[in-house]
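Lecture 7 notes: from sequence to structure.
We start with the chain below.
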Amino acid sequence: MSTKEQKKRIELLQGTLDLLILRTLLLGPTHGHAIAKAIEFNSDEVLQVEQGSLYPALHRLIKRGWVSVEKGTSENNRRAKFYKLTAKGRRQLTVETSKWDRVAGAIARILRPAEREGES
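Predicted structure tokens for the same chain:
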């Protein structure tokens, strides 16, 4: 990755990666590399999740009981761990999505106060 590309990268707010992983796993069980690629693809290549961030986040989600893990075989016939959203994780996804919506709304109100004044 070039320096120019590194400058364009967007750092995720703490907790945002957990939300993105939970949302990605809503589509079904998958392995770590596929989770990272799905986040990258669905963000139009804006968000790139490095292994050094992804796997600690997955371990944190497992510890909280939001994600479970099973061993399996990937599409290219390699051994892999498949991560799956638990019922507790589904409920937490709803909570985290609500929190995100509140934070995003608050940030938007700060960045675009004129638009808010126009609503009156």
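Points to note: The chain has a mean pLDDT of 88. The beta strands are 30-31, 67-73, 79-85.
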